[in-house]
Amino acid sequence: MQHSLSKSEPVTASLPAFLVASPMLVILVLAILVLTTLTAGCTLFRPDPRDAMEPVLPQGYALYSDEPQATARWWREFGNKELDALVEEGLNANLDIGAAWGRLRQARASAVQSGADAYPSLDGTADYSHTHSGGSSKRDATSESHSVGLSAGYEVDFWGRVEAVATSGQLDSEASREDLNTAAMTVAGEIVSRWMRIQSNRQKKHILHEQIEANQTYLELVELRFRNSLATALDVYQQRENVERVKAELPPVESEEQLLLHELALLLGRPAGSIRVADAPLPGLASLPGLGLPADLLASRPDIRSAGLDLRSADWAVAAARADRLPAVTLGGTAAYSGAQLATLFNNWMFSLAASVVGPIFDGGYRVAEVEKARGVVDERLAVYKGAVLTAFKEVEDALAQEKWQQRYIEARQSQIAAARVNLSEALSRYRQGLDDYLPVLTALFTVQELEVSEVDDQADLLLYRVALHRALGGTWTDDLVQPAGSESGSAVESGADQAGQRQTNG
């Protein structure tokens, strides 16, 4: 392990010129840096490499696609610019994503703090005292003292504890970024789903209005036949009831549409009722996206990547807990100028180096229990990681199965609708000829109208299964997300976290 020494440069540069030029202070800093270099790289405790921690997955999915693996912004395949704009707005304004950015900022700052012990610490000191004494038998006496100097310290990482803590913190930061990516994928899927359901409800409203007009026409026909003594009053009452039945189906559809608009506004970080969505037909279903292999989910699903990083962080936490059971070696040094007056401040100087060893002798089993607790966390996160992999594979297979059987279901329902319309036409013909009463017509009409409304839901469900498939496959498009402009980014902390990550990578 190599320790970067760049952190001391800006501290030295900010000191007064007379301190920088002082040979005594330069010797102190150089001594600490030399000892740091000589003792670096002694890392006894490191996690053992893991082999085959992923559960065994099949070689392929139940369905196969010739398309390359889909990793881009998948919602663009639906070909609606308003939908594209809504998703992009949600990725920038959604409050859950905003909270995830905040957690990422915290994690990056914690990563910098976790790696701070890998560097020497350097503090400036200054002291002034004034003493005045007197009495009946003494003359008044006054004394002053001034001092200014530096103090430095460094923990020699003999056992790798400092490195383990720093690496664990950096992995936690990377896992937080993957959690943000997971939130972004969820929000994108929810926005598309809400938009699809809004459009399907609007299509159902249009169909219901058409059915009301058609039922009014049928009612006029029945009333005309009743006035001509060709129909009974019961026929009229039954058709009037059918008209009111269809009218009663409108309020729930309109209510659901309004609630969906409220949910969409919340996903976009807006107050309820502040968003409008243009009418649009439900898009056609594109060809099956590229699925890749089940093993590709390990890289394309951010929730799996996050679980894997959490597991690696727990491994390093075990190494840190084991190293903490051994003695810690700390180097320290002080250098100072002192004088009774400011004019003589630099006439006297003091320089000291010290080393201390602190090791546990008896702690009531605290450190042993800490190692055991850390290993328990590893067991937990290993199970969580395997569960995330299996869940991801299940979600892809579920979406594929639902889409496959929904397509067959739609084909069967379309045949049923065609047969129901033929039945309605024949029943109406026989009624007009006086061969049957109105009940067969009413039954056939009810069936056709119910199927027409449910057909819209069937098409919407098919599209929602495709949305679920894209969400299950994941992708790498979230890697391009950046924090929206205007928010505090904590660039200094992020830069420190990035440097820490690079240090661990090189180590």
From TrEMBL:
Any one GO CC term of the record: plasma membrane
Region feature Disordered, mapped onto this chain: 123-146, 480-507
Instruction: Tell me if Cytoplasm is a UniProt keyword of this record.
Output: no
Main subcellular localisation: membrane
Q: Which InterPro entries match?
A: MdtP/NodT-like (IPR010131), OMP_efflux (IPR003423)
Places the protein is found: Cell membrane
Q: Which UniProt keywords apply?
A: Lipoprotein, Membrane, Palmitate, Transmembrane, Transmembrane beta strand, Transmembrane helix
Low complexity: compositionally biased ranges: 485-497
Bilayer-crossing regions? 20-45
PANTHER family assigned to the protein according to its UniProt record, in alphabetical order: BLR4455 PROTEIN, OUTER MEMBRANE CATION EFFLUX PROTEIN
What's the family?
Belongs to the outer membrane factor (OMF) (TC 1.B.17) family.
Question: How is this protein named in the record?
Answer: RND efflux system, outer membrane lipoprotein, NodT family
Which source organism?
Pseudodesulfovibrio aespoeensis (strain ATCC 700646 / DSM 10631 / Aspo-2) (Desulfovibrio aespoeensis)
